[in-house]
C-alpha cells in the first residue's frame, strides 16, 4: 500500500510538472500571438500608407504637366533632342512670357518634348 502511494505521488508529481511546462508553453504562445497580431496590424497600416503614397505619386506628375504653344520649331533633322527643346522653351519663357532670363534658366524640367 505504501509503495502504491509512493508510486501514485511520483506519478502525480510527473503530471504536475508536465502541466506546468504546458502552461509555460501556452503563455509563450499567447505572447507570440500577441506580437504577431501587433506586427500584422502595423504592416496593414504600412500597406495603407504605401497605397496612399502610390496614389499621390501617380497623381503628382499629372499635376505638373504644362503645355506651351508658340514655341518656334526648326526641326529640319526631324529628331529634335529634348535638350534643344528645353533650350527653346527657356527662351520662349523669357521672350513671350517676360520671365527674367535668370529665373527661366534655373527652372527645373523633368521632361521636355514636342507633340
UniProtKB/TrEMBL annotation:
Q: Tell me the protein's name.
A: Uncharacterized protein
Organism of origin: Dreissena polymorpha
